[in-house]
Design brief:
Layout: H1 2-12, H2 56-61, H3 66-69, H4 86-90, H5 99-102, H6 124-127, H7 130-136, H8 155-162, H9 165-168, H10 170-179, E1 203-204, H11 211-216, E2 219-220, E3 222-223, E4 247-248, E5 266-267, H12 281-288, H13 314-317, H14 326-329, H15 369-372, E6 390-392, H16 412-421, H17 435-439, E7 463-465, H18 488-494, H19 518-521, H20 532-536, E8 541-542, H21 553-557, E9 596-599, E10 602-606, E11 614-616, H22 620-623, H23 633-640, E12 642-643, E13 649-651, H24 672-675, E14 681-696, E15 704-709, E16 715-717, E17 722-725, E18 734-748, E19 754-759, E20 768-774, H25 801-807, E21 821-825, E22 831-835, H26 849-854, H27 856-864, E23 872-875, H28 882-885, E24 895-899, E25 902-906, E26 912-916, E27 942-943, E28 948-952, E29 980-985, E30 989-994, E31 1010-1014, E32 1025-1029, E33 1032-1037, E34 1040-1045, E35 1053-1058, E36 1068-1072, E37 1075-1080, E38 1083-1088, E39 1096-1102, E40 1108-1112, E41 1115-1119, E42 1125-1129, E43 1137-1142, E44 1153-1159, E45 1162-1168, E46 1174-1178, E47 1197-1202, E48 1212-1213, E49 1231-1233, H29 1243-1248, E50 1251-1252, E51 1255-1256, ...
């Protein structure tokens, strides 16, 4: 009963305590004395107190009354030389005769029903008396200066932690606001900190940083508190935010002047930006959504295994039972994961959760990784669950064990309660919202077929294990051998390390490898690498996590030319000592031994967590030295590779010019670029807000206000590996990059009307808000996971073209987002928007395997209905007035592209049309697709052309070249070609139409016009298709494929023509890295486009009636007309193979177009099947062999069909959003990156990965390959 009450109290008091007083009013907060303005006043009785000079008798007197009840309680320092009493830290009255007088009483006793940490208390501490905060937790940062930070104790550390990233959390806030256009500065402006009395504070670096510190070290001048969202102007002005409108929506109060079915005049405000509801949703999200929260300012949520901790200093130094894994928790694993106490103090209930294991600080700072993992499981806290080999569950894999057989239909209260526990609301539909089930989630590991689950559940999430696999998704053992049959027994065997001490962790043949970091596998906890400064900070405000880190790999492992110095040299090492850097040999480990010890040429490290554990630290120079026991030919080849005088690649030893002569010099590449085995990526997290609910804010005062914001996962993958230039702070070296902030936003107003849905954002600098980040994956492995040569350079077998496209961040078409609506071009019947997913989370594709799990009743209804889709919205392709003024004009839509809130369509003789689809999900609209919101005179969304056959947006994401950029943000310009739409007209050739006006949020200038018409001497007559490839347009026309240079969009020029006999009447082109795939009259022709301006044919496969093509990773999907869906294996593009032909037993027989989209972890094909309508085909699912790999073989099955009415035909499908494309083929950046100075590789840098002196080179993973020359090292 008490636990239930505490859970309820935690939810209600998350950020408010208004309900405790009659009328909902908050009692006046304790305020500092009027005589002082200091945020952290020291009580007069504590001024100058030096506890180190205290006698044993004085210390005993300060504990005498306490230990009468708290028998066996003792000083958590566990040092005989330290003489302090209970009230020296906790306050209270040790001489009082009653508990009530001895204990400091809370202002809100209902929230503190016991001595355990309350559940989800958040801002409750800001409203409590500081005396009570100190009594509960002396390490809380509001009061630590009068407990931990008294004279000669830890005053410096308290100040450092108050200004550290773990407290203010500015990196996430800064990235979220800038990446989504809310603030113009990439340097974070806001951070979280509170005074002794709970008042939000501004922080400053004192003394102010020098310009060099700001630019090269990432030091910030100041951070302000997160401002109120109610007055923030939106940075992404979606149509609902635009100025204008006559009415403001009022809940339950319809306006009699509003036209029924046409609520376009009802806006969020009748005034300007930043008023009423016309405010920025990003600020709302930061206040409302649990992202990296809670920071060290607040206690952990204390509601799940993996969420138990206190606040401030105590958050790390007082260990809680969070994880039963021997790997993650080390010697603390036997204490379980329920946050239970094992302290001898008889007053602490041993079955009550929310207590530390013991009233003891971790001896010698022996803090286990499980304690770090409480916070570091989110993109804002660098996703360190990858270090222990886990990432978030993907909502599908082994879902039959997590979703109930009978569908859950949560009430509003149940959904809200589930969301307070887990911001991913899909948990309300499965067992993860059941605390007992979640707590024992590892019990289902004995029944799981495809994965294994972790024992920690921070944020209420489930985490799945990541295993070593090949590109086809087949699991591999430690020696790299494919495991033929992987069953549950094999998976459990792979997880045996979770129960073993480090010394007993040995790999076995035929057993999958759980890809935790090799350091973790050997017993190395976070604290063994990140020392005192990395943990506490250095009193400087850093704008990104790695700016605060003083360690680098080479400090312990050395380089190819020298052994380790054992002195830190990372970005923050300049503050570690007056000389710069920290002497690691001076540090001590548990038991007093030196942390690092040299023995001859060897270096050993003693564990900080595992008593008696010691390991050798391999030296890089030994791995390249023949004869050394650690010599490895592959390692030596990778580290010493260079180009000889004759142009041949050679390796072996270091050249006389030193490291700078090597291909992979440490000055240009980070160690982790090669040594990371995998990188967690998240694509398209969905953050819808709902205005018809009130929830507390998670920061500042914790007010309860309207809007609840969900945080729903979409696609989570571990096989994607990409490289980019790192930020300024880390030297702009090449290293790993990932998608970690690619969000889609949505909103429901107070009437539960969807006013925008699944919208992408644009960053402040104009780059797309489908964001990426350079990062340290913390997934280092040895020979069973290190990257090989062919992971980053063209293979001699020519089988890694798709891998290269992914690596260079050009995109693969595999991770695209189709979303709730599939857009269908229906020829003269106009266009259709077909609902293909559920609205509720998880937004399963109707008829899919996930649909069967999460919505079994709706799935059965779908089956009984013949797998038919029923909900759609249509537009005839022309306006009502045109039926009278142009009755003979036909709008023939056979090419269309939806992007953001607009859809572009080539309408034949009706020219180019732009349709407003911003309110497609708004139930209040009767005509949800339109060309003018009020009157055709108010905007012009068309361009007349003679015969528009195709339209192409240069990218499906939305970079805006018209936005101003601040120089200090160090961003690359958006290429001007991204400000246009490209129309292929059969009579007029190539037409460029400016589209920038559609992105500026100004409804008064929505008049588009043609800017360029290009058809030199009729060369482009018959143009029927256009594909934008970098700064080139590949146009299909009567002459063949014509390549047009659009680097200067207003002055296009032809660079080459590829016609008969190689290409005959081409219809479509798709490009993937070095190859273009052309659909023509004879089938599919492949062209080498290593030089984009001069494609050359290299192979062909004959196919009858090939109408369109879509290339996704190692497969090409051909719309084969009567033959159905033809799937080609394009692993080696020069050796095309038909993998399979799919017709769904003859049902698919008029296929015009195919597009792919991934939903959660399953791939789908959306087909325009002519007279048969629109089809949905599931290609992969968790049951597909190798589904988690880069190139699983598709296993198609027809799951849904929409038959167009009135004998309509489906001709085209709109392409989904490219979520893994950050740069185009010419090196132009498309998407924003999270660190200042970070970016994708530019054109020259990309070409160095596969060309030398303008010629292609290839590589082999075998050091003895004839491609290389071995050079014996000089002695």
């Amino acid at each position: 009963m008490v636990r239930t009450w505490v859970l309820w109290i935690g939810a209600v008091t998350a950020v408010t305590v208004c309900c405790w007083l009659p009328g909902g009013k908050l009692p006046p907060a304790s305020v500092p004395s009027a005589s002082t303005n200091t945020p952290f006043p020291i009580p007069p009785e504590l001024v100058g107190v030096n506890l180190l000079h205290q006698s044993p008798e004085q210390a005993h007197a300060k504990s005498a009354g306490c230990i009468v009840c708290h028998k066996a309680a003792c000083d958590p320092h566990a040092k005989d030389t330290l003489r302090i009493g209970c009230i020296d830290c906790h306050g209270g009255d040790a001489a009082a005769a009653s508990k009530e007088r001895a204990h400091v009483q809370p202002r809100f006793p209902q929230a503190w029903r016991s001595s355990a940490n309350p559940v989800r208390s958040y801002t409750l501490l800001n409203h409590e008396h500081p005396e009570f905060v100190r009594f509960v937790n002396p390490g809380d940062l509001r009061v630590a200066h009068i407990s931990c930070g008294t004279v000669n104790c830890h005053p410096k550390e308290v100040l450092q932690v108050r200004k550290s990233m773990m407290t203010h959390g500015c990196m996430l806030w800064g990235a979220a606001l800038y990446n989504n256009g809310a603030v113009p500065s990439k340097r974070p402006l806001f951070g979280e900190s509170y005074s002794m009395h709970g008042t939000p504070l501004a922080l400053q670096t004192v003394p102010p940083p020098t310009p060099e510190e700001q630019i090269k070290k990432g030091v910030l001048t100041r951070l302000d508190p997160l401002p109120r969202f109610e007055v923030q102007q939106p940075g992404n002005i979606l149509r609902i935010f635009e100025r204008g409108g006559r009415f403001r929506s009022e809940v339950g109060m319809p306006n009699i002047f509003e036209d029924p079915g046409r609520p376009i005049l009802t806006r969020l405000s009748v005034r300007g930006l930043g008023t009423q509801n016309r405010v920025d949703p990003v600020f709302t999200g930061l206040q409302k959504t649990r992202l990296l929260d809670p920071t060290l300012n607040f206690m952990g949520t204390n509601d799940h295994p993996g969420d138990y901790r206190s606040s401030g200093c105590t958050a790390c130094h007082m260990i809680y039972a969070n994880d039963r894994s021997r790997v993650h928790s080390g010697p603390y694993a036997p204490f379980g994961h329920q946050g239970l106490s094992h302290d001898p103090d008889p007053t602490i209930p041993k079955k009550e959760r929310g207590h530390p294991i013991k009233h003891r600080f971790a001896p010698a700072n022996s803090i286990p990784t499980s304690q770090c993992m409480v916070c570091h499981i989110h993109p804002g806290t660098t996703v360190m669950n990858s270090y222990v080999g886990f990432m978030w569950w993907d909502e599908e894999t082994d879902g039959q064990l997590i979703y109930p057989k009978e569908p859950k239909k949560p009430t509003a209260e149940e959904s809200t309660r589930a969301m307070m526990s887990n911001p991913n609301v899909s948990s309300a539909r499965n067992h993860l919202s059941d605390p007992a089930f979640l707590e024992n989630l590892t019990d289902i590991n004995q029944a799981a077929n495809h994965t294994q689950f972790a024992d920690f559940h921070g944020h209420g999430w489930a985490f799945r294990a990541v295993f070593r696999q090949d590109r086809q998704g087949r699991l591999l053992d430690h020696d790299g051998h494919v495991i033929a049959h992987v069953d549950n027994a094999k998976l459990q065997e792979a997880m045996r390390f979770q129960k073993l001490p480090p010394q007993e962790r040995k790999h076995k043949p035929g057993v999958p490898v759980h890809l935790m970091d090799i350091h973790m596998e050997k017993g190395m906890h976070c604290i063994d690498c990140h020392f005192v400064q990395d943990m506490h900070g250095n009193t400087k405000l850093q704008g990104e996590v790695r700016a605060a880190v003083e360690i680098q790999c080479i400090d312990c492992h050395g380089t190819v030319t020298a052994r380790a110095t054992l002195r830190t040299s990372g970005p923050a090492s300049y503050t570690s000592s007056p000389q710069g850097g920290r002497d690691l040999e001076a540090l001590r480990s548990i038991g007093g031994r030196r942390r690092f010890e040299r023995e001859g040429n060897k270096i050993y490290q003693n564990s900080m967590v595992e008593p008696g554990l010691r390991w050798e630290v391999p030296q890089t120079i030994d791995t390249i030295t023949p004869g050394n026991p650690r010599y490895n030919a592959k390692a030596a080849m990778a580290k010493t590779m260079r180009v000889g005088a004759d142009g041949k690649m050679e390796w072996g030893g270091v050249p006389s010019c030193g490291e700078k002569g090597l291909a992979h010099a440490n000055s240009q590449m980070s160690c982790i670029a090669c040594h990371s085995s995998w990188n967690p990526s998240c694509y398209g997290c969905h953050l819808p807000q709902r205005a018809n609910s009130k929830t507390p804010q998670l920061h500042n005062e914790g007010d309860v206000t309207r809007n609840i914001i969900e945080y729903n996962f979409q696609t989570l993958r571990d096989e994607v590996y990409m490289l980019a230039r790192d930020g300024d702070v880390t030297g702009n070296r090449i290293g790993p990059s990932r998608s970690s902030c690619a969000i889609h936003v949505g909103s429901y107003n107070g009437n539960r009307e969807s006013i925008y849905v699944q919208q992408q954002t644009i960053s402040a600098c104009g780059l797309s808000g489908i964001a990426f980040s350079t990062n340290v994956p913390h997934t280092v492995r040895g020979r069973d996971g290190t990257k090989q040569c062919t992971d980053c350079h063209p293979s001699a077998k020519n089988d890694n073209n798709a891998i290269m496209a992914q690596l260079l961040m050009q995109g693969t078409n595999y991770l695209n987002f189709i979303g709730r609506y599939t857009w269908v071009g229906a020829g003269t019947h106009g266009l259709e928007a077909v609902e293909v997913t559920e609205r509720e989370e998880p937004q399963a594709v109707i008829g899919s395997s996930l649909h069967k799990l999460a919505f079994p009743d709706r799935f059965e209804h779908h089956l009984r209905g013949g797998r038919k889709l029923h909900i759609l919205h249509e537009h005839p392709g022309k306006d009502i007035s045109e039926q009278f003024f142009k009755p003979h004009m036909k709008a023939d839509i056979r090419s269309l592209q939806a992007r953001g809130e607009y859809l572009y369509a080539a309408c034949g003789e009706a020219g180019l049309r732009v349709f407003d689809i911003s309110f497609i999900d708004h139930k209040g609209f009767s005509e949800r697709i339109f060309t003018a919101p009020v009157s055709p005179a108010g905007q012009q969304f068309y361009v007349r052309t003679k015969d528009a056959a195709a339209v192409a947006a240069p990218t499906t994401i939305a970079p805006d070249p018209t936005r101003a950029q601040q120089e200090e943000n160090r961003e690359q310009k958006v290429h001007p070609l991204y400000g246009y739409l490209y129309v292929a007209d059969r009579s007029e050739g190539l037409i460029l139409v400016g589209a920038g006006t559609l992105l500026d949020g100004n409804p008064l200038n929505n008049f588009i016009k043609r800017d360029v018409t290009f058809n030199p001497d009729g060369l482009l007559n018959g143009a029927c298709g256009v594909t934008i490839v970098g700064t080139y347009a590949y146009i299909c026309c009567d002459k063949g494929v014509v390549v047009v240079d659009i680097d200067d969009p207003k002055n296009p020029k032809v660079t080459s023509i590829l016609g008969e006999p190689y290409v005959v009447k081409p219809l479509a082109v798709q490009v993937q890295f070095r190859y273009a795939f052309v659909c023509d009259e004879n089938g599919v022709t492949v062209m080498d486009v290593t030089n984009l301006d001069k494609p050359r044919p290299v192979s062909r496969i004959k196919l009858p009636d090939a109408r369109n093509i879509y290339v996704a990773r190692t497969h090409a999907y051909v719309a084969g007309g009567k033959k159905g869906l033809i799937i080609l294996d394009v692993t080696n593009p020069e050796e095309l193979k038909i993998d399979q032909v799919f017709t769904a037993d003859g049902e698919i027989n008029d296929l015009n177009d195919v597009k792919l989209g991934i939903t959660y972890t399953s791939e789908f094909a959306y087909l325009a099947d002519g007279k048969n309508g629109m089809r949905v085909v599931q290609l992969t699912s968790p049951e597909t062999p190798g589904n988690g790999g880069f190139a699983p073989r598709p296993m198609p099955r027809l799951i849904a069909t929409y038959k167009l009415p009135h004998e309509g035909k489906a001709y085209a499908i709109s392409k989904g959003v490219d979520r893994d494309r950050a740069v185009d083929e010419s090196g132009n950046q498309l998407a924003v990156f999270g660190r200042i100075g970070a970016r994708p590789l530019n054109r020259d840098e990309q070409r160095k990965m596969y060309q030398r002196d303008g010629k292609l080179y290839k590589v082999d993973d075998d050091p003895l390959s004839a491609l290389y020359r071995y050079v014996k090292p000089l002695k």
